[in-house]
Amino acid sequence: MSNIGLYTFLKSKTMELTEEWYKSLDKSQEGVYSSTNPDQIEKLKQQNHSFHVLFCELFNPVKNGLQDEVFAEWIESIANDHAHISTPFSNIINEFFRTQQQYLDEISTYVESVDDDTITITDLTKWNKMIVQGVNEVILAYSKQNKKQADYTLNAQKQMINELSSPIIQLAPHTALLPVVGEIDTHRAKMMFDHTLQHCSEQFIDTLFIDLSGVPVIDTMVAQQIFQLIKGLRLIGVQTSLSGLRPEIAQTAVQLGISFSDIPIHATLARALEQKQLTY
Does the predicted model carry a pTM greater than 0.70? Predict the structure, then answer.
């Protein structure tokens, strides 16, 4: 039997499906589904209704499956929606499965509403299978888009953390301070190298104080990276000075054969600033 009858039936039920879905929604669960904000609730309903309008096209005789770019845009919009991002992934997947059950129930209702015997068990089985496969396709597409968004957010957070872990503070025109705090691994050392060179070049810094008093320990790789940073800064015309070198760090530098003979070194940052006649 043709899908046209079922297609027309489902298209007429899209708004009703949304209202039934929201009415039976567990509003105690975490995330977007528990919102009491009228605007957020209306937006959630609109998003759900858009899903139904698009999903019904699964039974459109002139279309083939859910490979519509418009549906892909809907999935992307949900995956990128802030309210859905803050909602547990399992809760969203559960709502897809609840929607799947809605469609299976509607198919049964449609079959019962048809008076003749033109609908066969084969038709019913085919339609149910289309629903299950269609929802599976949606969940798979959403999962991929969700991971893409999560990866983007994670990378952005890493970038922000890296920038915050090596903040360059402007002290005076063309003069800045790089206070290094906490443990430094090779990844952070590399990010500090790239960020510091770029910032000093963009801000026309010619004098940079590097304070290591907040660094408990540095391994040989990191010590080498700091030395490379100083050499790189010198190549772009930035004069550097070191302060707060702990005995352990100095010992590591000696073991590496790194010479700081041509780099101004001060016991404390205050001494370094005094030398340049700068104060906080």
Answer: no
